[in-house]
Amino acid sequence: MTATHASRPHSAKYQWAAGLMAFAAVMLSIVGVLDVFRGIAAIAEDDIFVTTRNYVFEFDLTGWGWIHLILGVVAVIVSVGLFQAATWARVAGVAIAALVIIANFLSLPYYPVWSVIAIAISGFVIWALCVARKDDFDDAFESGPPRGDM
To answer: How many degrees, rounded to 5, is the angle at CA 9 between CA 124 and CA 23?
Structure first.
């Protein structure tokens, strides 16, 4: 006897939620990797950074480099969890994206164009993680991929 498993078609809600989760994971990993590179460049005190005088949130360039390097590494780790649709990763993703926004805002004068781009991407990550509800995709991720007739 062969067992047949009825494949349950995914609803549009599931596809939308899964797509947003994948979008957030990819974008957070991109922001994380680029923040790692930015941190390394700042620690090496590369010439790509603008020097400003009398900035209220002025840190040493190496200090900003370490901040961005740490945030980038954590963002990449969290994005791996987002690819697995882990609940902790959704919460951590919103938190790390918010910290990336704050860090890029505070270091805006050092590298203005990338800071604005990173702020915008992180805003989309927060939106994507907050708009998709867990109920929309929870059953499909927990039960595994749908199975067809065997």
So the answer is: 15
- Lookup result for tokens 């805003």: 123
Rounded distance, CA 49 to CA 109, Å? Answer: 9
C-alpha 117/C-alpha 108 separation (Å) is 11
Tens place of pLDDT for every residue, the chain, 150 residues?
A: 555 555 555 566 667 777 888 888 999 999 999 999 988 988 887 666 666 666 666 667 788 889 999 999 999 999 999 988 888 999 999 999 999 999 989 888 778 888 899 999 999 999 988 887 666 555 444 544 444 444
Residues in the chain: 150
- Confidence (pTM): 0.75
